[in-house]
Amino acid sequence: MNYIKTLAVLVFLCLNTLSAFSQTDQEEEPLSLDSGTINNQFEYVIQKSSSWRDERGQSYKVTKSFWLNELKAHTLDSLKAVHKDLLDTQTIVSNQKKEIDDLKTNLSNTQIALDKTNSEKNSMSLFGIQMSKTGYNGLMWTIIAGLLGLFLLFVYKFNNSNKVTKEAKLALSEMEEEFEEHRKTALEREQKVRRQLQDEINKQKTSKNSK
Questions:
Q1: How far apart are CA 8 and CA 39, in angstroms?
Q2: In this structure, what is the dihedral angle of CA atoms 45, 46, 47, 49, given to the nearest 10 degrees?
Q3: Residue burial 3-42, b: 16+ Cβ < 10 Å; e: rest
């Protein structure tokens, strides 16, 4: 009887430990002694055990001993698995703590290096030449201003060239129109002179014929 009580207490503790993992599955999995969660296996034993009452009406369950042995083995296996998972989790937590400590150390070293860099001399190197930050900034702004001036000059020349090109095209177009007008006028004059010459020839022929 003490053995059964001890086993029942052990199983109760195991069930409390594994309840979070088996609560969902136990409603879906069929009851079996060889598979499923520990809780399902206990339900299987309870439902399959015979019931009887004593003369006082107290209810009891008669369970097969090999069922209890199976439950004990499965419970111990589950406890071992939980213990292994706990050890693995502790190892992971320990490794993560070490990584966090290393990151904190690296961050501290980086901050020290940054503070050291910020506290160095107020100088910079350009093409191997040391100069003050003020001189460096002045040189950079001078270069930028020079490039900006060249860019503006290029834009001005481009616009001016574009303007000259447009004016030249317009002048050429006007000259072409004037030339075309002059050509038409010359053609009309030539045609008029030819008609006058033909009229004169015709008059000369008529005069000769009349004599």
A1: 13
A2: 80
A3: eeeeeeeebeebbeebeeebeeebeeeebebeebbbbbbb
**What is the 8-class DSSP label of residue 37?**
-
For residues 22 and 39, the answer to whether their CB atoms sit within 8 Å is yes
Q: Which DSSP state fits 63?
A: -
Q: pLDDT, tens digit, for every residue of 90-116? A: 889 889 888 999 999 998 898 888 877
Q: Where are the beta strands (DSSP E) in the chain?
A: 50-53, 59-62, 123-126, 129-132
More confident residue, 46 or 110: 110
Q: Which residues share a beta bridge with 62?
A: 50
List C-alpha distances in Å: 12 to 17, 21, 49, 74, 173.
9, 15, 18, 13, 107
Q: Is 126 helix (H, G, I), strand (E, B) or coil?
A: strand
Question: Which residues, at least 6 apart from 29, have a Cβ–Cβ distance to it below 8 Å?
Answer: 35, 36, 37, 40
What's the pLDDT score for residue 2? 47
Phi, psi of 3 (to 5 degrees): -60, -45
Token look-up 């129109």 returns 177
